[in-house]
Write a structure and sequence with these properties.
The protein starts with a strand and ends in a 7-residue tail after the last strand. α1 links the parallel β1 and β2. It is α+β, with helices and mostly antiparallel strands. One of its GO terms (molecular function) is arsenate reductase (glutaredoxin) activity.
Amino acid sequence: MTTITIYHNPKCGTSRNTLAMIRNSGLEPEVIEYLKAPPDRATLVALIAATGEPVINAVRTKEAIFSELQLDAPGVTDAQLIDAMLQHPILINRPIVVTPLGTRLCRPSEQVLDILPAPQRGAFTKEDGEVVINAQGQRV
């Protein structure tokens, strides 16, 4: 059985769309609501490293707490950003998806399609009405 994990916030449309695309491939992921069960330091560091992206890409820079903590100041280190995400999980950008094919911050949500081990089983339209997958299961 293929293991897929999504670090999910059910209040986030991008996260909901990503979860729905995973399920549209016929797979049921492990859903971790990271605001209720935040990752520990080792897990967060490993997730970010696995994406191949800089730490700052894993931070929600538009959250008010980002500015309040002055995380946009010159010289803020990756370690400080990680500390802030651990103390304030709302700062963790989402959704992060882990599959056997890779780990990705799925913004936009259709980025998940590149790492799913199974094809889409049918049409998929995002919550905003954007068609992503046609009736034949192909990316639009």
